[in-house]
Amino acid sequence: MVTMSDVAREAGVSVMTVSNVLSDRRPVGAPTRARVLAAVEALGFEVNLTARHLRAGRTDTVALIVPSFHDYFGEVADEIAPLVEAEGRHLVLERTSANPEHEMESLSVARLQLYDGVLLSVAALDRDQLDRVRTPKPIVLLGEHEVPDRFDHIKLANEEGARLATSHMIEGGSRRILALGAAYESAHKMTTDRRVGWETAHREAGLPVDERYVVPVTTYSSQGAREALLDVVASGLPFDGVFAVTDVIALGAVAALAESGLRVPDDVQLAGFDNLDVSSFVPPGITSIDPNHRGVAQDAVRLLHRRMADAAAPAEHIVAPVRLVVRGSTRGGR
Amino acid sequence: MVTMSDVAREAGVSVMTVSNVLSDRRPVGAPTRARVLAAVEALGFEVNLTARHLRAGRTDTVALIVPSFHDYFGEVADEIAPLVEAEGRHLVLERTSANPEHEMESLSVARLQLYDGVLLSVAALDRDQLDRVRTPKPIVLLGEHEVPDRFDHIKLANEEGARLATSHMIEGGSRRILALGAAYESAHKMTTDRRVGWETAHREAGLPVDERYVVPVTTYSSQGAREALLDVVASGLPFDGVFAVTDVIALGAVAALAESGLRVPDDVQLAGFDNLDVSSFVPPGITSIDPNHRGVAQDAVRLLHRRMADAAAPAEHIVAPVRLVVRGSTRGGR
DNA sequence: CTGTTAGCGCTTTCAG
DNA sequence: CTGAAAGCGCTAACAG
User: What GO molecular-function term can you cite, just one (chains A, B) (predicted)?
Assistant: First the structure.
């Protein structure tokens, strides 16, 4: 391995001068600089980032820690990456597998030390577990959980979004709207928040809230949603609308409705949440709640930068606004 | 910050003993061990991974470097993660933004030094650029490009997959099949390989190959595909089948066909490539070529482990087999 | 503008 | 089974 002292010897300067040329932290005379760069080139030197990190106490790297790499998180990550890079830092993704044990491990101070800042999308940790995370590292939490006040946090307007989607379907004539993937008690606070919004929409319209229309799913996948909805159809419970708590769930619903011979939106209106890319392409277009991924990404990075600049700043808690995007899966679109 | 020497002092042992307890590299007497662990607990010590990395020359971390975080790569990453973790290493994702400049930078030896091994999904680099990557780091290349022989490499059976999908639609009665997203000359070798498979299917069936049916897309997104296909419809070119070079492209085709009032598969058969989750849920189900993500992930991790164990092993070049998954978007399914 | 010194926190090596 | 010394490769701080 070629080290800085090899380069220094080759160029006839001190190690410090090589360091200064490469990091631009102090001015170096033009001729000296040229000799150093020539030596770097000749020897094929590349700085050892691990050594730099240890000495400088800085890695110029931000981690985004997510439950899984695909779907929602992949889309958000692609929004965050350019914002982090714009500040001259690298973004790396790690995943926790939505497994509380792994999630705690990802949060171990040891692992966090590798980064200058961390964006953590909490999936399975409750407030108490988060409270045990004691680190001076700048952390911004993303996600729908309740978190200790001392953390910066961004969540979506879950109730509001669910209410908007449900009201929209009520206005379109639906009277028996399933809340697919929603729950009364759940490790995922998001599913209960969105259930509440679904209830609120009913109350506002003077419609009764029937618990049988809250349909949980066993696995939060399209497949799980498909099976759950097919079970409802088989049970004979009449319905004319489906509010899916996420677009991934809505996708499973689309499949189940098609297989059951139910037409969207004629027989059943359908709305989702997250506004994934796919929702605008699946015919007839899935009405969804747009959480403004880009805006959330910007807020997240802004909070993290603020926190990295000032560890003592008061924690900020943002509820990101959402909006309804009407497509062909509900009446009133097109 | 609490360091090992703080712990050593607290426990009344040497720094070395603390290190041995924590890394399990040398046996430590039970009572000593207990004192050390108590001190670790009392002080809240966490090992400094950067220092460990520098000294040990090892990070126990593998990087998967991909063009973007979403869709295809996110799904593959979720398959790879558990395999890497099973060997006691961490997986991190970095992205190159499918931009040749960034891709070269991600490949800088400096950045690679941070990892014990790298899985690199080449998107925009040609063989010459890859040939300039000179590093002793274990690297396994993934993707459809041609790569220098000295690299381990896994690619899909692109021609074969395209041929299978196209032949299947020909058997189902299609005679005018668009190759949507395919190309004659392209930075993406994949798009030309799949075009060749489309041609082969025609030749085998004794059908003419009409260049007008090769429809490039400007951006490799569903939206780009949707627009390209709407343009074809508007042009009046008759067609009764669409081979989409990826499922993301196929999704855009589904939207465009629906908007044009063309029924799938009655008026137009449709097949994609990649077998993304979404393809099984979009009605009527998109016939696709399954690249066996899990198998590719296993091969990739196997090659990387072999390379990490033996830097001098001969490079292996794997063409991963694919299979046709028939769904409702083609006749002969269901 | 350039150099010298010291040391980041850990683990390898050698010694007991 | 435990310890002391040395140093991984780099940069902050201080000197000239």
Answer: transcription cis-regulatory region binding
Q: Decide: pTM greater than 0.85.
A: yes
Query: CA B62, B65, B68 angle in degrees (round to 5)?
Result: 140
CB contact under 8 A, B95 and A90: no
Residue span(s) of chain A under CATH 3.40.50.2300 come to 58-156+292-321, 158-291+324-333
CATH 3.40.1180.10 fits B158-291+324-333, yes or no: no
> Distance, angstroms, CA B48 to C1' C10?
8
Phi–psi pair at B291, nearest 5 degrees: -85, 5
pLDDT one-digit tens code per residue, A24-68: 888 888 889 999 999 999 998 999 999 999 988 889 899 999 888
Q: Which amino acid is residue A206, in one-letter code?
A: G
pLDDT band at B321 (very low <50, low <70, confident <90, very high): very high
Mean pLDDT of chain B: 91
Q: Measured between alpha carbons, how far is B137 from B135 in angstroms, rounded to an integer?
A: 5
Please, is B175 exposed, middle or buried when counting C-beta atoms within 10 Å of its C-beta (0-12, 13-18, 19+)?
middle
Whether A196 CB is under 7 Å from strand C = no
CATH number for A4-47 (one of 1.10.260.40, 1.10.150.120, 3.40.50.670, 3.40.50.620): it is 1.10.260.40
- Is residue A32's beta carbon less than 7 angstroms from any atom in nucleic acid strand C? yes
Within chain A, all domains assigned CATH 1.10.260.40 are found at 4-47
**Integer Cα distance of B183 and B110 in angstroms:** 36
Question: Which residue in the set B48, B54, B252 is minimally distant from A281, CB to CB?
Answer: B252
CATH H-level, domain A58-156+292-321: superfamily: Response regulator (3.40.50.2300)
